[in-house]
Write a structure and sequence with these properties.
Aminopeptidase, 13 strands, globular, alpha+beta, about 30% helix, 2 domains
């Protein structure tokens, strides 16, 4: 039976999530306290057993000066002893039907394995969102650049403003953005910015012991971006970094998919050059 979960199902969803994805208890505590909502979830129950589950997180597509209702399909999971029984197909078809009934125009997701691109294509998803990933020599500047961690509300305001003004973009909810930032902090990463009164550049920084990864660097201009990169070099001591951000020209990787649920509201041409932030893939 496919249904929206009740309170008593929350522990079952969390338990299956832990089993399938092996996420930390700290992350699950954060997700289920900050972002989880029964109305944004679907489950399949057989007797008292949870067979499959997924999340439908509200977000929006910023395009042509307006925001269009969208949903990020996330944490699609099937219990190990319930696989190859058609539960995923039933769950995905039901999710897309429910989203249409709620007048959601676009569904998006990020496949976690290469083979899943083919799986999700069966439900009407197309590979859309691209990124560039490259090694980057961090600039060395003599300027004294102050890099700081901004308040989440201020960072979110800059984030939305940047992505909504420049190109078609998937914008996460305020709660989703905060959850990702807090999870980043839990795992030793940083939300970093430069600026004085207003933020001029922002990024998500992951700092494993022997490398630095810069994700989704947003800047008002090239000078601001170079200043932030220089500040990161001074702060971390690393000269090189892996940088992941929206593809400006030809991409070397497609990482996200979209399914248009209302073709009267949105066409595939509208998604040309669209971007879904990597930070959503928390």
């Amino acid at each position: 039976m496919i249904l929206y979960p009740k309170v008593e199902h929350t522990a079952l969803i969390r338990g299956l999530w832990k089993q399938v994805f092996e996420d930390s208890d700290a992350y699950l505590d954060l997700y289920f306290s900050k972002l989880y909502a029964a109305e944004h979830s679907l489950i399949i129950m057989e007797d008292s057993n949870l067979c499959a589950s997924l999340q439908m997180l509200p977000c929006s597509l910023s395009i042509k000066g307006k925001f269009i209702s969208a949903a990020y399909i996330f944490a699609v999971m099937t219990a190990p002893n319930s696989r190859r029984k058609g539960y995923m197909t039933s769950l995905m078809e039901s999710a897309l039907k429910e989203l249409k009934n709620k007048n959601v125009t676009l569904a998006v997701l990020i496949p976690q394995e290469e083979y899943l691109f083919g799986v999700y294509a069966k439900y009407g998803f197309k590979a859309v969102f691209e990124l560039n990933e490259c090694e980057l020599l961090l600039p060395d500047s003599s300027d004294n650049i102050l890099v700081f961690t901004p308040a989440i509300e201020v960072a979110y305001e800059f984030y939305v403003s940047y992505y909504s003004l420049h190109f078609p973009s998937i914008i996460p909810s305020r709660n989703h953005f905060e959850t990702v930032c807090l999870n980043l902090k839990q795992e030793g990463g940083l939300l970093l910015a430069i600026g004085d009164i207003d933020i001029k550049a922002l990024c998500f920084l992951v700092t494993p012991p022997e490398s630095v990864t810069i994700i989704d660097i947003l800047a008002i201009d090239e000078n601001a971006e170079m200043n932030l990169l220089s500040g990161i070099r001074k702060m971390t001591g690393f000269e090189m970094a892996v940088c992941k951000k929206r593809a400006i020209l030809d991409s070397n990787k497609v990482f996200g998919m979209a399914c248009i649920l209302d073709e009267k509201e949105l066409g595939w041409n509208d998604l040309d050059g669209a971007y879904m932030s990597l930070m959503m893939n928390d």
